[in-house]
Design brief:
The complex is a heterodimer of chains A (about 260) and B (about 240). Chain A is mainly α and about 260 residues long. Chain A is built from twelve helices and no strands. Chain B is α/β, with parallel strands linked by helices and about 240 residues long. Chain B is globular. Classes of the chains: A mainly alpha (about 260), B alpha/beta (about 240). Chains A and B meet through α8 and α9 of A and β6 of B.
C-alpha cells in the first residue's frame, strides 16, 4: 500500500467511526424542538430521577474511589499469584453483561440470596431499595476506576516511597503524600470513566433494584419508562442526561488537568 | 557507628555481610549484581534480613527481637537519581522530612537548612528543572535536615555526565568531611573511591576485601579488586 492510500484509509476510517459515534447524540438534539425540550424538562419523572441519579452515582463513586484506591495500591505494590488473582476479580464485572450482574446481585443480596437471607433475618432488606441502586452502580463501575488506579500507582517510582520512609513518613503517609498526588491525573481520569459508567447503568439496576419512581428510578430508567408512553419526553430526558454527563465529564477532565499541573 | 552483620537469601544470591562504619566514609564497591543496592534496602528497613543484627550508635535497628521501621531508623538516604518529589518545590522537599514540626516552623527550618547548604536560591524552584548538581545538593539538604545518624548513598553520580561528576565528587566529599557522619556509599565506579576513607569490595553477596585503596592496590584478592584499585583516580 502506498503512503497516500494508507493515509486515505486512515482518514476514511476516522470519518466513518466518528460519524457513527456522533450521529445518535446529534439525532437526540437535532430532532427535538425547543418546546419539546421545555416540556421534557418539566416532565414529572425528571427531577426525582435526576436527583436519585446524582445521589446514587456520587455514593457509588465515593465507595469505588475509597475502597478501589486501597485495593489498587495493594495490587500495584505486590507481585505474585494472589495480586494477579485480585486484579482479575476486580476486572470481572467489566466483562459480565449488566443484566447478568443484576441477576447475580439479586441471588447474592436478594431476600433469599446468599448474603441477603442472612441480612433479612436481621431486618435488613437491600433488593429494590435505593442502596441496591448504589450497589449495582458500584458493581458495574468499579473495574474502570480500579484498572486506571493500578496503572497510575504502578508508575510511582519505588525510590520516592523509600526516600519518603527514610524522611520519617509511615507507609500510610507515604501513600497519602507521595503516591496519591503523583497518581492524581490517572485517578481522576479513572474516576470520570467510573462515574460515567455508573450514571449510565441500566440493566443491573433494573433487575436488582427495580424501577420505582423516587426510590430506584435513575435517569436511564426514567428514559426507558417515558419511552413506553411518549417518545418526545424520553428524548428530552435523554438529552438532559447527556448534558449532565457531559458537564460532569468536563469538570472531571479539568480536575485531572489541574492535578497533572500541580 | 553503624554495625552490620546480616544474611539474606534472594533467589540465587546468598548475601552474608559484616561491616562497621565509624565517623568515616566507606565505599562498598562491586560489580553489578553483587547485592550492593539490596544491602542498602536491608539497612534502610524496607527489606528484611533473614537473620543477623544492624545497630546504629549502639541502638539495635534489627535483630531477632527488634525490627525498627524505616521511618524511625534515622538513616539519611540518597538513591541513584536522588528521588526528589516532583510534585513539591525544593522547599517542600526539605519540609517533607520535618512533618513533626508545626507548619510555620517547618517552613522556617527548611529555609534555614537550604541557606546553610548554600541552596537558598532553589527554594521555590520546580525540582524537575534543577541541574544534576542542584539536585544532589537538594537531596543532601533534605536528608541532613532530618539530622540522621548515618548516610547511605546509592551510586551518587551514576545519573550525571562525566564533567559534572568530578566537581560534584569534590563538593560531596567536602560535605561528608564537614558532617563527619558514618557514610556508606555503594558504587561500581572506581572513581568514587576518591570519596572514601575506606573501601569494602563486595562480590556475589560477600565482602571479599576491605582496606584503603593503597591496601587494595598492594594485595588485591580478586581480579575485580585489582581492576578497581588500579583504575581509581588519586584522591581529591
Amino acid at each position: 500500500m502506498t503512503s497516500r492510500s494508507w493515509s486515505a484509509v486512515q482518514q476514511g476510517a476516522t470519518i466513518i467511526l466518528v460519524s457513527f459515534l456522533l450521529l445518535p447524540v446529534a439525532a437526540l438534539a437535532l430532532t427535538l424542538s425547543w418546546s419539546d425540550l421545555v416540556a421534557g424538562a418539566r416532565h414529572p419523572l425528571l427531577l426525582p430521577a435526576l436527583r436519585l441519579s446524582l445521589a446514587t452515582s456520587t455514593c457509588s463513586l465515593t465507595l469505588v474511589v475509597v475502597l478501589g484506591s486501597l485495593v489498587a495500591w495493594w495490587v500495584a505494590r505486590h507481585r505474585g499469584r494472589l495480586s494477579r488473582l485480585v486484579e482479575s476479580v476486580t476486572q470481572l464485572p467489566a466483562v459480565i453483561p449488566p443484566a447478568v450482574a443484576g441477576v447475580g446481585l439479586l441471588l447474592a443480596f436478594g431476600r433469599r440470596g446468599l448474603l441477603g437471607s442472612f441480612l433479612a433475618r436481621h431486618g435488613l432488606s437491600l433488593a429494590f431499595s435505593t442502596p441496591a441502586v448504589v450497589l449495582a452502580e458500584t458493581f458495574v463501575s468499579a473495574p474502570f476506576f480500579i484498572q486506571a488506579a493500578i496503572a497510575a500507582f504502578r508508575r510511582v517510582d519505588e525510590n520516592l516511597l523509600t526516600v519518603a520512609r527514610t524522611l520519617g513518613a509511615s507507609p500510610f503517609r507515604s501513600f497519602l503524600r507521595v503516591a496519591l498526588p503523583l497518581s492524581a491525573p490517572g485517578l481522576v481520569g479513572g474516576a470520570a470513566m467510573s462515574w460515567a459508567r455508573s450514571l449510565g447503568e441500566f440493566g443491573a439496576t433494573l433487575l436488582f433494584a427495580g424501577n420505582l419512581t423516587g426510590r430506584t428510578q435513575t435517569l436511564p430508567l426514567a428514559v426507558y419508562t417515558a419511552m413506553e408512553s411518549d417518545l418526545r419526553a424520553a428524548q428530552a430526558l435523554a438529552l438532559i442526561m447527556v448534558a449532565v454527563a457531559f458537564a460532569m465529564l468536563l469538570v472531571l477532565r479539568r480536575m485531572a488537568r489541574e492535578a497533572g499541573d500541580a | 557507628m553503624l554495625e552490620v552483620s546480616i544474611a539474606k537469601r534472594i533467589g540465587t544470591l546468598d548475601l552474608a555481610l559484616e561491616l562497621s562504619v565509624g565517623a568515616e566514609t566507606l565505599l562498598v564497591a562491586g560489580p553489578n549484581g553483587a547485592g550492593k543496592s539490596t544491602l542498602l534496602l536491608l539497612l534502610l528497613g524496607v527489606a528484611r534480613p533473614d537473620r543477623g543484627r544492624i545497630a546504629l550508635d549502639g541502638r539495635t535497628l534489627f535483630d531477632t527481637h527488634a525490627d525498627v521501621p524505616a521511618e524511625d531508623r534515622r538513616l539519611g538516604y540518597l538513591p541513584q537519581d536522588y528521588a526528589l518529589f516532583p510534585h513539591l518545590d525544593a522547599l517542600g522537599n526539605v519540609a517533607f522530612g520535618l512533618a513533626h514540626f508545626p507548619r510555620r516552623e517547618r517552613r522556617a527550618r527548611s529555609a534555614a537548612w537550604l541557606e546553610r547548604m548554600g541552596a537558598s536560591h532553589l527554594a521555590n524552584r520546580n525540582v524537575e528543572a534543577l541541574s544534576g548538581g542542584e539536585r544532589q545538593r537538594l537531596a543532601l539538604t533534605r536528608a541532613l535536615a532530618r539530622e540522621p545518624r548515618a548516610l547511605l548513598l546509592d551510586e551518587p553520580f551514576a545519573s550525571l555526565d562525566s564533567s559534572a561528576r568530578l566537581e560534584l565528587r569534590a563538593s560531596l566529599r567536602r560535605s561528608l568531611l564537614e558532617w563527619r557522619l558514618p557514610a556508606l556509599i555503594v558504587s561500581h565506579d572506581p572513581d568514587d573511591a576518591m570519596l572514601a576513607d575506606r573501601i569494602a569490595v563486595m562480590e556475589r553477596g560477600r565482602i571479599v576485601q576491605q582496606g584503603t585503596r593503597d591496601d587494595l592496590r598492594a594485595a588485591p584478592s580478586s581480579p575485580f579488586v585489582a581492576a578497581f584499585a588500579a583504575t581509581s583516580r588519586e584522591s581529591l
